[in-house]
Amino acid sequence: MRISEVTESSGVPATTLRYYEQLGLISSTRAANGYREYGSEALEHLRFISVAKKMNLDLEQIKWLLEVTETGTCTNTRDTLHPVLTERLREVEDSIRNLVELRAVLVSSLDHVATCPDSSEPCQSECAFKSLT
Asked: Do 76 and 131 share a domain, yes or no?
């Protein structure tokens, strides 16, 4: 397949395909006319990359996981992928906890600011964030 066909089939822009190729995530050969030609494995890799990106894995991790899936057995792939996904899940759960805490602080601050009286006096910085002290 030419780059335009891969782009059309995958929805991935040609610039991204070239970038992924530079990083070694996908590969192509060159036809006699100089055009890139991709095999069907390029589409498989692009699907893999798409799912991995939805998990917020970085491109280095994705490249490593692609190498594992290509060279290893299903058991090896599972055993390699499991701790990566476990760690990613832990990171997401930590982020959720932090966001819940941030939300509580913002709600409390918003409630406090909403009850501040009108005044022509200079405002003290602790007035707006009194609920945090």
From this structure: yes
Does one domain contain both 76 and 53? no
- Are 37 and 30 within 8 A, CB to CB? yes
Q: How far apart are CA 116 and CA 80, in angstroms?
A: 55
The answer to whether residue 132 is domain-embedded is yes
Give me the mean pLDDT over the 60-71 stretch: 92
Q: Between residues 20 and 131, which one has the greater pLDDT? A: 20
**Where in the sequence is the domain holding 47, given as residue range(s)?**
1-57
pLDDT of the residue at 126: 60
Sign (positive or negative) of CA dihedral 89, 57, 5, 29: negative
pLDDT at 131 over 60: no
Co-location of 44 and 90 in the same domain = no
Within 8 A by CB and 6+ apart from 13, the residues are 7
Is there a domain that residue 121 lies in?
Answer: no
User: pTM of the entire structure?
Assistant: 0.73
Looking at the DSSP bridge assignments, the partners of residue 30 are: 36
Q: Are residues 38 and 78 in the same domain?
A: no
Is residue 38 a contact partner of residue 26, using CB atoms and an 8 Å limit? Answer: yes
